[in-house]
């Protein structure tokens, strides 16, 4: 039996044609397609500006830099995320801390955030930036988190790597109504892909200028930003230390073409989730709960195996499904458990919900093209030794 992966890309003939067209054109990079892709995503999200880069990791890094994160600063994020949400602060020399997750959404808990801010305020060490992560596409309670950012004076980057195409209180994720910058990933397992790629969107004209400069070595061609008048028309200045984080036109062409089907992808993901809901009704498997303010991008479908509810432990169920060809996954190992982070003084007891989550979560396959038969197979494999096989 071949493996059913947890996620995979959807590539059409139009996608292939769009990429080939760039290959036959004059510009493989720094041509017209990257700005076209940026415009398309910004207008889809209802944001004023966008900066395309070679990964969401790069986008998170230059977003932190643009907000002035540096040595001695503090950045907070969720422990239930990919390591990149925390690493971006480390690249800037800042310290990282984590806010425990909500028991229903598995996103950063607003209550824990408020408590932690109050303590940090009294201790005189507030975060400069907080990075809420929209896990599985479900949007964090941005309204409340934004209110806390005003009260305590920190900036906000939404890690929306899972969430393009989703909405919060009726507005597209990426509108940046409640944050300074929102970041998307276009890795092939995500909702739309460019192969590798990412984007930062914002409504702030200064932040976009800074991020665009940091994406390309810290170089400017705007005389207004230079320390002296240009020596000639060839002139440019490197005014700070940036990187080569540029996206190519080849990648952007795939992105432009994928944007055509973004809404369709989201609808299909919702249809798949609804079928799982039905299949898992009246079983001991805990299904994902959706906050009414959020319309999820549904990048992931995460269920929980509560220890005493099922025959077989979480680990046994996971290993058996993998052995039987279902590419289940676990999103994520709490970041503070990673060896790189372990020596920085985090205590597992400070994150009881993240710990409980880590002992129970399993990501089931979800991607456009996953068939009802395959879903039936996934659920059968999930439930087989639990005594619930009779429902099939
Ligand atoms: C995938 C992912 C990233 C990193 O994305 P890349 O484009 O692979 O760099 C960051 N944060 C989260 C939550 C992700 O899932």
Describe the structure.
With 392 residues, the chain is α/β, with parallel strands linked by helices. The chain folds into 2 domains: 13-259, 3-Layer(aba) Sandwich (Aspartate Aminotransferase, domain 2); 262-386, Aspartate Aminotransferase, domain 1. The chain contains 13 helices and 15 strands. Strand 2, helix 4 (84-91) and strand 3 form a beta-alpha-beta unit. Helix 1 (13-23) runs antiparallel to helix 8, helix 5 runs parallel beside helix 6 and helix 9 (262-280) packs parallel to helix 13. The longest helix has 19 residues, at 262-280. The radius of gyration is 22 Å and the shape is globular. Bound molecules: pyridoxal-5'-phosphate. Pyridoxal-5'-phosphate binds next to helix 3 and helix 4.
* The CATH class of the largest domain: Alpha Beta
Total number of helices: 13
| Average pLDDT number | 95
Which value, in Å, is the CA radius of gyration? 22 Å
Trace the largest sheet across and list its strands.
Answer: 1-9-8-5-4-2-3
CATH topology type of the largest domain: Aspartate Aminotransferase, domain 2
Number of DSSP E strands: 15
Order of helices and strands: HHEHEHEHEHEEEEEHEEHHEEEHHHEH
Q: How would you characterize the largest beta sheet?
A: 7 strands, mixed
The hetero molecules present are: pyridoxal-5'-phosphate
Low-confidence stretches: 387-392
So what's the overall shape? globular
Q: What is the end-to-end distance?
A: 20 Å
CATH homologous superfamily (4th level) name of the largest domain: Type I PLP-dependent aspartate aminotransferase-like (Major domain)
The structural class is alpha/beta
Task: Classify the beta-strand content into a percent band.
Answer: 5-15%
Provide the CATH architecture of the largest domain: 3-Layer(aba) Sandwich
């Amino acid at each position: 039996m071949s493996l059913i992966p947890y996620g995979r890309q959807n590539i059409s003939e139009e996608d292939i044609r769009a990429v080939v067209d760039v290959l036959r054109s004059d510009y493989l990079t720094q041509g017209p397609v990257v700005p076209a892709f940026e415009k398309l995503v910004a207008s889809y999200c209802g944001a004023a500006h966008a900066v395309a880069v070679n990964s969401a990791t790069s986008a998170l890094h230059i977003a932190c830099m643009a907000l002035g994160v540096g040595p001695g600063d503090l950045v907070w994020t969720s422990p239930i995320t990919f390591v990149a949400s925390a690493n971006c602060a480390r690249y800037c020399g800042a310290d990282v801390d984590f806010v425990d997750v909500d028991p229903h959404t598995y996103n950063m808990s607003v209550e824990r955030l408020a408590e932690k801010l109050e303590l940090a305020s009294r201790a005189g060490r507030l975060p400069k930036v907080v990075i809420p992560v929209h896990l599985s596409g479900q949007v964090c309670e941005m309204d409340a988190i934004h209110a806390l950012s005003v009260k305590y004076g920190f900036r906000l980057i939404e890690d929306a790597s899972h969430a393009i195409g989703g909405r919060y209180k009726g507005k597209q994720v990426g509108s940046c109504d409640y944050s300074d910058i929102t970041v998307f990933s276009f890795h092939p397992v995500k909702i739309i892909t460019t192969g590798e790629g990412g984007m930062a969107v914002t409504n702030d004209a200064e932040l976009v200028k800074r991020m665009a400069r940091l994406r390309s070595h810290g170089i400017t061609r705007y005389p207004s930003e230079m320390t002296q008048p240009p020596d000639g028309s060839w002139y440019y200045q490197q005014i700070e230390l940036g990187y080569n984080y540029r996206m190519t036109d080849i990648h952007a062409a795939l992105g432009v073409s994928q944007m055509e089907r973004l809404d369709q992808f989201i609808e299909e993901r919702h249809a798949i989730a609804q079928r799982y809901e039905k299949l898992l009704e009246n079983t001991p498997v805990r299904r994902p709960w959706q906050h009414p303010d959020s319309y999820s991008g549904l990048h992931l479908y995460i269920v929980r195996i509560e220890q005493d509810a099922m025959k077989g432990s979480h680990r046994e169920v996971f290993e058996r499904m993998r052995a039987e060809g279902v590419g289940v996954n676990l999103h994520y190992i709490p970041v503070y458990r990673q060896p790189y982070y372990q020596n920085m003084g985090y205590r597992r007891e400070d994150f009881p919900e993240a710990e409980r989550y880590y002992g129970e979560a399993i990501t089931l396959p979800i991607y456009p093209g996953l068939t009802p038969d395959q879903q039936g197979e996934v659920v059968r494999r999930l439930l087989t030794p639990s005594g619930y096989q009779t429902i099939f």
